[in-house]
From TrEMBL:
Signal peptide feature range: none
Keywords: Hydrolase, Membrane, Protease, Transmembrane, Transmembrane helix
Transmembrane segments: 36-58
Highest taxon above the source species: Bacteria
GO biological process: proteolysis
Lon proteolytic domain sequence ranges: 157-273
Protein name per UniProt: Lon protease
A GO term, aspect molecular function: ATP-dependent peptidase activity
Pfam families the record matches: Lon_C
Stored InterPro entries: Lon_proteolytic, Ribosomal_Su5_D2-typ_SF, Ribsml_uS5_D2-typ_fold_subgr
Length: 295
């Protein structure tokens, strides 16, 4: 049961309450206007709102990995077999990653999303554009891992098919193992494939240069488009690349966003990409390689 007090009783209750407070606190309360406390309350509410989980995903340039190098003292591309030759390529083939926050299991606050929106080196997207509605953290991790596993397997098969046709190397004469950690998705397929082809030959395809790239690889040897290419170009330039191989289908996103000092080459197929790699490394015909134009 509730009992409602009269106006007089409410006044007496408030007066008794104020008298029971320390004198300094009473002076503080009575000396500040209602507007002051309203502002303070607004700030508290705003801080609470900014700390809530965001409905957006934040993408930013991630780390790169040299597929011709090693990871934890193990070659990223480990090859064995009767047709494997000693390879001492001093250049680098960088696969590029994008760090993604705000996906299941990696939630971010509204405040972080807001500050990321103002950062030209980050990209803000609705979560539904990246992750299906209702997908759990475990499901997201599994899907991302499966895509990477499929990409690695496809890269091995496509590379060995290409080597058999163009380099005279039989698939059964080579065994390939890829060692990659903490990378998901299919976008490194092209760079895995180029790395395998590079390590199958004694030549230095890179010519000692640092060449980055991104793109999926398909059974047809087509190079497929990927997401986050603007951020990947930033990461490539940051880590010393001077050349960047980009899928032809991503060219509209590339134009107008190429970092200074980075040369982008448009590729449609694995043959395009491998020929571009050799031209860049040798310096013969590199200036004639196709760049990206708005379609």
């Amino acid at each position: 049961m509730f009992r409602f007090s009269t106006g007089a009783s409410v006044f007496r209750t408030c007066f008794k309450f104020l008298r029971s407070l320390p004198h300094a606190l009473v002076l503080y309360i009575t000396s500040h206007s209602l507007r002051y406390f309203a502002g303070f309350f607004t700030v508290v509410v705003a801080i609470f709102a900014l700390s809530l989980p965001s409905a957006y995903v934040v993408e930013e340039p991630g780390p790169t990995q040299d597929v011709l190098g090693s990871l934890s003292n193990t070659p990223v591309i480990d090859m064995s077999g009767s047709r494997v030759k000693e390879n001492h390529d001093t250049g680098k083939l960088l696969l590029i990653t994008v760090n993604v926050s705000g996906v299941p299991g990696y939630e971010v606050s509204t405040f972080y999303s807001l500050t990321s929106w103002m950062d030209p080196h980050k990209s803000l997207l609705p979560r539904e554009a990246i992750v299906p509605v209702g997908q759990s953290a475990d499901e997201y991790e599994k899907e991302s891992t499966n895509e990477m596993d499929d990409s690695q397997s496809l890269a091995q098969n496509v590379a060995l098919q290409y080597a058999s046709k163009h380099l005279g190397i039989k698939k059964e004469d080579v065994k390939v193992r890829l060692h990659i950690e903490d990378i998901g998705g299919p976008s490194a397929g092209m760079m895995y494939t180029l790395g395998i082809l590079d390590k199958l030959t004694p030549e230095q395809e890179t010519g000692g240069k640092t060449i980055a790239g991104t793109g999926t690889i398909e059974k047809s040897q087509k190079i497929g488009e990927i997401g986050g290419i603007r951020l990947k170009m930033i990461a490539a330039k940051r880590d010393g690349a001077t050349w960047f191989l980009a899928p032809y289908d991503n060219c509209n996103e590339v134009v107008g966003h190429v970092p200074q000092g980075l040369r982008v080459v448009s590729v449609k197929t694995l043959d395009d990409a491998y020929r571009a790699l050799k031209a860049i490394g040798s310096g013969h015909g590199a200036n004639k390689l196709p760049s990206c134009n708005v379609k």
